[in-house]
Design a protein that fits this description.
heterodimer, A: mainly alpha, 66% helix, globular, B: alpha+beta, six-stranded antiparallel β-sheet
Chain lengths: 216, 233
């Protein structure tokens, strides 16, 4: 604990832990983790937002718990321990929401399974929390959750706009009268392959700006 | 990484499992009353929604008592069954019984326009899990007054669209019978003819959910066939 007190809570190092996953170490576009859920929940903005928030909370808190226990977790059963922590957290949160925020829990029920199996969470526990102190691990979790959520929201924005003609359920294209000119929604955008293509375009855009990310 | 003995690993795992199990069962037990109350409110809200009465969490129970005047249970021969509360009948459990033993709940409601409405619950399978809903019929017991659907885990943005107003509102004024024969309501991939009184559009990208919903309507509503024909005006 004494080391932590010396280091300011938002030191440059910790700030970098938070910002790196947003761009140059993004879990989806650079580490290529969590793709499966990125395809499943990005048809509309609302579920994408719910998923982004849930994953951020779960990855941050499970990082915190695992980092706090890291010196007591036997190496040989660490994956099981990580899985138990994640699953317990997700179920606990779901139970509490069911009792006190029923509407949110109905939104979330679909995602519970997807959160538990999200590779980003396991990936961060294994790669970061097992070897770092609780606070930096918590920040790392927040950063990775935010980086994941950012891509989810960008993908969902384009898929919802082009596929359904709405933004967060609001019929923008209808309001500006685009349909009367003969425009039609692109049904392809609703189907999962288009999420992969949009993610691909984001990766292309990101790497054209940041040459370091291009594999040799 | 420190080396841990087998003994430590066993103890660690045991303690972890016991702690987690205790935590989860404690949470489940403590939260159960609140969760069950939410489910009851949710059921009442859905029924009210099928007769176009918007209810919130706080006034659902009150509005339910105001609008839903009567409820009873029929058996498969459309005879009333005494001593069963229609509200507590769980359709999923009924569907596992043989047809002769099934209870068929019916709710009577009177919305503000004074029409005598009946509400019938339906339950079936979507793509990933159960889907269910309430169908309300006008006093001719043929024309749909309103519907509400819900689901456990259909894909967000695709099959999950069945519980949105644009999908549900297509069912209003569709008819279940054609010349006294039960035909139900069909979903059409690529869109139904607007003049078709038995057809609605399927959800794009949610074909299996839509087809499951169509099957749910046929399976559940045809059990009421005799009752609907006998009591229509």
């Amino acid at each position: 604990m004494s080391d932590q007190e010396k280091e300011p809570i938002f030191s440059a190092k910790n700030w970098k832990l938070f910002t790196a996953p947003l761009d140059r170490n993004n879990p989806i576009t650079v580490q290529v983790l969590g793709i499966c859920s990125a395809l499943a929940v990005t048809v509309k903005l609302k579920p994408a937002l719910v998923m982004a928030l849930s994953v951020t909370i779960v990855v941050a808190i499970s990082n915190l718990v695992i980092a706090a226990l890291r010196n007591y977790i036997p190496d040989r059963v660490r994956i099981i321990v990580q899985l138990v922590v994640i699953a317990t957290l997700v179920i606990l949160v779901d139970q509490i929401l069911k009792a006190y925020a029923f509407d949110v829990s109905k939104q979330l029920s679909v995602f519970v399974g997807l959160i538990i199996t999200n590779c980003i969470i396991m990936g961060r526990l294994e790669a970061f929390a097992m070897a770092n102190k609780p606070w930096p691990s918590f920040v790392d979790g927040l950063g990775n959750g935010a980086g994941y959520g950012l891509i989810l929201i960008i993908v969902a924005f384009f898929r919802e706009l082009l596929g359904s003609g709405t933004i967060y359920g609001y019929p923008v294209l209808e309001k500006i009268g685009l349909y009367s000119t003969g425009y039609e929604n692109n049904g392809m955008m609703i189907l999962p392959p288009m999420a992969l293509i949009v993610v691909g375009l984001i990766i292309w855009f990101q790497r054209s700006r940041n040459k370091e990310l291009i594999e040799k | 990484m420190k080396h841990f003995s087998n003994r430590y690993i066993f103890i660690f795992s045991t303690v972890m499992v016991v702690v987690v199990a205790a935590l989860l069962s404690l949470a489940a037990t403590l939260l159960q009353p609140a969760q069950e109350r939410n489910l009851e409110i949710e059921k009442k809200r859905s029924m009210l929604e099928s007769i176009h009465v918007p209810a919130t969490k706080t006034n659902a129970v009150e509005l339910y008592d105001k609008y839903i005047s009567e409820s009873f249970v029929l058996n498969s021969k459309s005879e009333p069954v005494e001593g069963v509360d229609a509200f507590t009948v769980v359709l999923k459990n009924e569907q596992k019984k043989p047809l002769e033993d099934q209870y068929l709940p019916v709710f009577r409601a009177t919305p503000d326009d004074g029409e005598k409405i009946i509400i019938l619950p339906v339950e079936g399978k979507g793509l990933w899990g159960p889907i269910w809903g309430y169908i309300s019929l006008r006093s001719d017991l043929n024309t749909i007054y309103g519907v509400t659907f819900d689901h456990k885990g259909e894909t967000p943005g695709l099959g999950a669209e069945i519980n949105t107003t644009p999908f549900e509102s297509m069912f209003s004024d569709k008819k279940l019978f054609e010349d006294g024969a039960f035909v139900s309501v069909q979903v059409y991939k690529g869109g139904a003819d607007p003049s078709d009184i038995h057809g609605v559009d399927a959800v794009s990208g949610g074909t299996i959910t839509s087809k499951g919903l169509e099957k749910m309507l046929v399976d559940c509503l045809k059990k009421y066939n005799d009752y609907l024909l006998k009591n229509r005006i």
